[in-house]
Batch of 2 targets.
Target 1
Amino acid sequence: MSDLAISLVVVAARVSIATVFVTAALPKIADPIAFAGVLANYQTFPYWSWNLLAAIVPMMELVGGTCLVLGIKTRSAAWLLLLLTLGFIVVLLRTIMHDVDVACGCFGTSETAGRVGWPELARDLVLAAAIGIAMVRVPKMPHRPR
Amino acid sequence: MTRGRNELVDLLVLVGASVLLGLSNLAIRADRVPWIPDLPDPSSALCEAGDRTVDRISVTEAMALLDQSRVTFVDARARTDYETGHVPNAHNLPASDAAGLLEIQSIPIPPDDRVITYCDSVACERSEYLGLLLRDRVGCERVEVLEGGFTAWQHAGGAIERGGSP
């Protein structure tokens, strides 16, 4: 694969991932109480942490996504989003294993989707793989002689 | 090695910035969301609710108060039940739903309003729990539980409103 092709794939992955995370973050930042309720319904997090997680996790999504698409601290932003996604995968696995009836809340609370399950887990696995691609260092293009 | 260390430092900076921005978002909001909920854990409070009681109000008396301005009805049932039919102008704070519980402090109930909570029926404990929270945590001075809940309200021919907000 040529350097140009690699660069295009990596940039496309970064833009796609940033779009997903920023889109997911905004409604949760706008209504942290609703997202705290979603977190509570997962029956995974302690009561005292609901509001803190509802405030910080969406902001991590926004900061990570924004930095990734703007090319600021790109690899660290990708690491941040990867760690978040791995965390989501662990929570989803626990939820599925314990048969907890809860809506995902991944993109805010207005979504009409039913309880979380394997499709959401598959989506997060694909997302994690895409973040792996986004972490590839873009090859530097040689200067063309004029 | 140095590059990896720089990336780790940058990662910590991004995490720190996210924490600061997130906490600031809670702090500057008009609805004053606390960093840590100062309401009791729903699971433990439900267990304690049996030890204490909230005053009762009969359906007949509650129906006479419906149009009075200093009276607020609070529906403790799930959102779907509320949308199917509720006491006119009642607020919906689902006592079985953490989101509803966390919204308690942001609903506009003047502390000196007379507050009437209700759920489905006589045996329903959610209105009792919600009443305790509104009285002991939010500071509402006069809180009562509707005897017989929404079922008794319907049987008595009380007015019913359908649909969403408030």
Target 2
Amino acid sequence: MDLEYGEEYERFREAVRIFLKGWPLQGEEAELPMEEQEAIFRKRGIEAGFVYRHIPREYGGSGQPSDALEDQIIVEEFFRAGAPRDLSTQGAGMLAPTLIEFGTEEQKRRYVPPALTGEELWCQGYSEPGSGSDLASLQCQARLEGDEWVINGQKIWTSSAQRAHMMFGLFRTEPDARKHEGISYLLVPMDTPGIEVRPLREMSGGYEFNEVFFTDARIPAANIVGQRGQGWQVSRATLVHERNLIGNPFMMRDAFNDLVALARSRQRNGRPAIEDPHVRQRIAEIEGYVRTSETSNLRQLTAAKRGEMLKAMRPMMMNKIFSTDTMQRIMECAYDLLGGDGVLAPSEEELDTWGRKTTSTGWVLQYMFSLGPAIAGGASNIQLNIIGERGYGLPRDLRRSG
Amino acid sequence: MDFGLSEEQEMLQETLRGFVGNECPTTRLRELFDAGDGHDPALWSALSEMGMAGLIVPEEHGGAGLELLDLALAGEVLGESALPGPLLGHSLASLGVLLRGSASQQSAILPGLASGEQIATIAVQESEFAWAPRDWTAKLDGDRVSGVKTIVGHAALADRMLVGLQGGELAWVDPKGGGVEIEPMNGVDRTRPFATVTFRSAPAERLEGGQGAASRLTDAAAVLLAADAFGAATRLIDLDVAYSLSREQFGQPIAQFQAIKHTIARLATDMEPSRALWWYAAYALDHLPEEASRAASLAKAHITDRATHAARESVELHGGYGFTWECEVQMWFKRIMFDRSFLGTPEQHRERCAELGGW
């Protein structure tokens, strides 16, 4: 065990830090809208080899050799500097790696570069009203007619659909095949006639996710990724890349530091809340989870670096539920520190900025948002099945279909 | 950056696991547990021959010269197997001598401890909540110590005692040298018996010359107790898995019910990631002195707290059988009770984290 990164990696860290002196932008560039500033800096990050390291250069990435520690250093340093790194959009995070693995040469050249820059915005068409945790039961149909897929049916909980140019999604193309084998992964332009997007209002008050209805929507037959009936495997592949399995505790640490700052700034009984014994206990208890997550991350990184991922399989499959639960604990504690301010509703403007953790209502919004990860991307109850079954050899759930 | 075990460390754990599997399987553990002595001379001498008694004692004094992380890794296996014996107090007593003893004291004392010929223990806790060096009131007057210590592990067995003194100093005492009264206490954890020890002008030797702070002793103890509780809780989760696969109700193994499966998955998710928390705290004791105290308290509070939860759930999961003396769950349940309550409750250690964090 050795927590020093060593000379080689410290040199790398130094290079990252020197690069990060370029953020925030200076002079005329600093006058540009923030989105443009981020795009400029991201482009420089790609040229320097620090951004989109796992996407080859010919498709708009920086194509660096895989190194778990270098990746970690980049994440740490960019996070510290508050500098823009890889977009975490559906397009950059989910679609691009999927196309790199399964797409045709033409698909990679056409779709990956604008997904990475964010010029082309993607949404994910997976969930349906009748298919949530049991996603493979999905019914939204695509029928091949000549050189076109004709799509009919509905998707739901589709975040950003109202702004997206494109959707990648799972559609039933082989109605006679078994459940998992009848699905294909298709790329759908959102301006296709026959597509209607209806916003859903969230409990937090905003409108981020949507229903998407397809009525004889026709897209080119070439817009399939992988073979017919292979959509399930195509959609799963990106989930099992080790870099996606290793947890990222930085968001959690950031939220925890904000919580401590909140407890320092709020008063209770005429003193800063953080001096209240009950508050101290609660925050120290939460820190146990935060430190667990951080140290477990180090253990997983080491396993990846050593090529011994199997030794860290159990903590890896626990990352999602562990971070979800810890973030909820942080937000619940923060919420109580607001006292009576906890009854206040966020403003429209705060809804647009996803709430800043400096105002009471910003925290109220975060308190509500923290429920999202327990549902999206594999509900916590399903995570528990996976941990029990794959991690500890407990029997599989009774699955009555398929 | 390498935050993982070395081959030697993995080997240490595997060797110890193999040894315990052969020499103290559950049937033998049960005999020792029911007898309540918390000691088996044959087991102790075999462990000593393996080098366990002197794991952290430098090689020049006959030990293995390993680090506190290695000791904690051994501690995890002791917890897994609820192994009866004085190793916890014995190892911490050696650490005290290493921290505060002069060169000549170290040369005189450590070889006997490293070989296991002499068994030592620590006398530090003074009452329910008074265990930290700043709480110590026992006094040394010349070469005589007076004071009362409680939860002194394996006191009746010990050849020597490391005694915490007012001002965070340490003394070395031969309990058979007069002025030492040992009153056994009735403890829940029958693998590690203890006593209240009263020192009435008992002959004692002040440890002086070393530079180490006494808080390092209690920090190391906190980490070892966390590792023990972690080992015990992971063993309980294994028992939960095995029981839920074998016990049938409504015509199927109860593991098939999500109520059971999710309970076990949650306990596992509480415990498994926290392995890294005590690894880190143990590593910090030797390598990150500025972080070590806070890391130790955080690990003790978090892990013994979560392990307690796992232990209580495990009893419930075993149904009526879980509440019997016969069911083996109780042995680890009580091991965890000891790990939690000895040398500071989770609440106390969390308050210490708050203080050390400048809150």
